[in-house]
Write a structure and sequence with these properties.
The structure holds two protein chains of two kinds. Chain A has eleven helices and no strands. By secondary structure, chain A is mainly alpha-helical. Classes of the chains: A mainly alpha, B mainly alpha.
Chain lengths: 185, 94
């Protein structure tokens, strides 16, 4: 016997839609701060979840279930579209002498207590797509290298090198910010 | 604890090869991400116990990764999003 539509919608609203802002937060990071794109992503993921609601097991983690649907929705789009070419200078970041500048200037990492989160979020958003997605999935969402590799359709070795370059790039941005703010002389 | 610099590998008392600083630092993220196999994880750990040059560098990278992880994706609000989503669902056939 199927559940009446209004009852189904009420259940979905009370259990799933309470996570809408969390879904939008993840969508925003995956799409590099592109708000309309993030909203489209959320709407598509929510619609998929709603249509699959009968298959959601009550009592299990609804937020995690929704996040997985959103991640998969994003990745399907991401793998279909051609990403913009990665700037050459970004590919070479590992060889740049400034890669460890932040550590050398602030080995105890005091900057992490002083920096404003928005600055770091902006730095993540500005990473080239394939690097940003690896960082969001691994560092923000806590997925393993293997899980990131499978989602992105790339070898584990590529995940490692992208994470290395992306993290060094973020540290460079933090270094620039710390100098600008006078935290580091 | 001593500073290892970039000494070449030499045999430890247990007969296991020692990692150089360069080799340890090349594995810093895999170590902190828990992505090394047991033997490699142990080899890096042994190096860090001895090397006062590498230990602070690893500690710094750990602070950095913890910071980014705690930052997380977080919740974000977008004006009108909740209403638009409810309208979308209301238009769905039951």
């Amino acid at each position: 016997m199927s559940i009446p539509a209004d009852q189904r919608q009420r259940a979905f609203e009370s259990e799933a839609l309470v996570h809408l802002d969390a879904l939008y937060g993840l969508a925003l990071r995956l799409s590099g701060g592109d708000e309309p794109r993030a909203e489209d992503l959320v709407q598509e993921a929510v619609l998929k979840a709603y249509r699959a609601w009968d298959r959601f097991e009550a009592g299990t983690n609804c937020r995690a279930w929704l996040m997985t649907i959103l991640r998969n929705t994003f990745i399907n789009q991401f793998r279909q579209q051609k990403t913009r070419p990665t700037p050459v200078e970004f590919e070479q970041v590992a060889e740049r002498p400034s890669s460890d500048a932040l550590y050398e200037a602030d080995p105890e990492g005091q900057i992490f207590d002083r920096i404003i989160d928005d600055q770091v979020i902006a730095a993540i958003d500005e990473l080239p797509d394939e690097f940003r997605v690896a960082v969001v999935l691994s560092d923000l969402e806590g997925l393993s290298y293997q899980e990131v590799a499978e989602l992105m359709g790339i070898p584990v070795g590529t995940v490692k090198s992208r994470l290395f370059r992306a993290r060094k790039r973020l540290q460079e941005r933090l270094y620039d910010y710390a100098v600008e703010m006078g935290y580091i002389k | 604890m001593s500073e290892c610099g970039t000494h070449s590998p030499d045999g430890s008392r247990s007969g296991e090869p020692e990692l150089t600083c360069e080799e340890s630092l090349a594995r810093v993220y895999e170590y902190l991400d828990g992505e090394l196999d047991t033997d490699e994880q142990e080899a890096v750990r042994r190096h860090l116990q001895k090397c006062r040059k590498c230990y602070p560098h690893f500690d710094f990278e750990r602070l950095f990764l913890d910071y980014v992880h705690e930052l997380g994706a977080g919740e974000e609000s977008r004006p009108g999003l909740h209403d638009r989503v409810r309208e979308m669902l209301a238009a769905e056939p039951g």
